[in-house]
Amino acid sequence: xxxxEALDALLSGREIPxxxxxxxxxxxxxxxxxxxxxxxxxxxxQENAKLSAEELxxxxxxxxxxxxxxxxxxxxxxxRSTSIRRLAEQSxxxxxxxLDFLAGKENVDLDDSQAVxxxxxxxxxxxxxxxxxxxxxxxGSGTQMEGKRHAPAESGNDxxxxxxxRLDSAPVVR
Length: 174
Fold this sequence. Notes:
Blueprint: H1 3-12, H2 18-25, H3 29-50, H4 53-91, H5 96-105, H6 113-126, H7 159-168
Helix pairs in contact: 1-2, 4-5
């Protein structure tokens, strides 16, 4: 009985003969992986022996170029991730992954500082909830300016307007 038949008997719930039990007990999938790897390398060596020196060099060059391309893609991904995390830290963005998504969606060139500034300004306006608040409690200078008060009719029901109203009506600490 071979391994496939033993596994079929086991899965179907049939009686498993003693020789199949022994085969299943001694089964080692890691040794099969090692044997497969060895056989693949031997096959590749035999195929390479049939090739001329020029063909062998072309094959090796092709493998090296594909490996180089894969490594370059990994490098680019890590460089982008580092740039996005640095931008998020500098701008106060609390979700760098979302910032990366938005930058990718809008095809922002992270090497162009002017494009990055425009993108961050636009994102700050359209998605302020993604950034840490730059507002601090209290009046700041100790003087209250009447012109900065928002009239209740002007203030909307959005979160930022409510925060500004609360800050404007906060007591002055001297």
